[in-house]
Amino acid sequence: MASVSELYDVGWEEMRDKLRKWREDNCRNSEQIVDVGEELISEHGSKLGDDIWIIYEQVMIAALDCSRDDLALTCLQELRKQFPDSHRVKRLSGMRLEALERYDEANKHYDAILQDDPTNTAARKRKISILKAQGKSAEAIRELNEYLEHEAVSVLYQSAPCFPCDFHSYGKAAFCLEELMMTNPHNHLYCEQYAEVKYTQGGLENLELSRKYFAQALRLNNRNMRALFGLYMSASHIAASPKVGAKVKKDNMKYAAWAATQINRAYKLAGRGTKENKCSVKAVEEMLESMQITMS
Amino acid sequence: MAEPELLLDSNIRLWVVLPIVFITFLVGVIRHYVSILLQSDKKLTLEQVSDSQVLIRSRILRENGKYIPKQSFLMRKFYFNNQEDGFFKKTKRKVVPPSPMTDPSMLTDMMKGNVTNVLPMILIGGWINWTFSGFVTTKVPFPLTLRFKPMLQQGIELLSLDASWVSSASWYFLNVFGLRSMYSLILGQDNGADQSRIMQEQMSGAAMAMPADTNKAFKAEWEALELTDHQWALESVEDELMSRELDLDGMFSKELPTGIF
Prior knowledge:
Number of strands of chain B: 2
Largest interface: A-B, 42 and 32 residues
Shape of chain A: globular
Shape of chain B: elongated
Distance between the termini of chain B: 71 Å
Strand content of chain B: under 5%
Structural class of chain B: mainly alpha
Strand content of chain A: under 5%
Order of helices and strands of chain A: HHHHHHHHHHHHHHHHH
Distance between the termini of chain A: 63 Å
Radius of gyration of chain A: 25 Å
Number of helices of chain A: 17
Number of helices of chain B: 11
Order of helices and strands of chain B: HHHHHEHEHHHHH
Structural class of chain A: mainly alpha
Oligomer: heterodimer
Helix content of chain A: over 70%
Strand order of the largest sheet of chain B: 1-2
Largest sheet of chain B: 2 strands, antiparallel
């Protein structure tokens, strides 16, 4: 198999810069990181200088993701040799144990770190992920709550909504998503997820909220198809509800109609240049018809 | 007015001016590394961390509260600010404002600061004064009154000499302050050799509010939160959205970026 540098005709500096960019953007493209990083370490290790340690860490975590235990172990050993007493390296060994499913030993590692330094956030986060991986969701939620009392780290809130949704406590999920929306107001995915939670909760007020947040998600990102469908669904749901007044009904039908035209446009664009164009557009229209909530 | 221009021996330039510059610079660099070595570890307690997190949460609520529904905003505001039960009202941290005399860690910090900064300056200033005495070193480019003479011309007993001509001790002090920008260039910002900054801090330190005084911080946060109102950013979002067609350009373009580079 050709090496990365041959395949793309890049030098080691570009590879190193690419790794740095991925590090700064927090990308999780583990396979690519492993490919590039492995070659960088083995071929050009001496040229990297002090950068090599952070690259070891980055590659090790990516290797754990791709199940490359050999590579992870090599990186870990190098780091241990260089930084024998470091909490950060201890956390990495804990992560490797987690990947090998030796959860008790991993827990012992993290407890040791926390004993030394009770404010170490990384260790706490790993403990909660262990609980999650073991499937003990209730305990994980409890630990999460306790942790959140001490620190409202937004990263934690990101993993939080999936728990309550598993347990149908949508109120808690909504709370977590609100926190996320406040810390990242321009992220359309949070708006959309929040709107979906509100839609699932049901009730006229929640439907209105969900419609508004679907619209906000669309405003932040015009191409969010899920939000577009969500807008259509929530608007037609409200319009079909018997409790609303005439004006509200009219408004919502207008919204639903607008959403439908946009959906049609999108599908036309998607099917551009293919023979099945007309058929798929018709299929979309039929689908929209069938999704109409009718008064029963 | 024709001042008699003194012609200084060029040896002075070689053996006095330049050595003083080097000495000052090297002493500064050494001070920087010594201060790094002597730096004491600041350990945060769990309570301090959670307090700072609460303050961050409240600040985010104030700034971005308009993106969440009104009900949720009010609920959070109530949690923080409620008369009997609110977090900011209820929590009184037992904070002893760390005065320099009582808090031992502060005392050692101050001592270390003094030792590394003020003491060398005095010692070296005195040594330079003693070594390079008896002659004029340089001339400052602006005219000075006679009252500066005893200060700047230590060791030169000439009554008629213009006050602009200064001795080596004053050249040393000029260097201490002048090399500050050099230090930033070479050692990066926040370096331990930056004496004038440290002296400024020491002078204003007495008037500065202690960041450990969380009660005051809570009170300030409470007031700020009381004043914030909820202006929902999503009031007319649908109309804004539907005023024009969605921008679907390039959504289904054939070219997808592949590969790493």
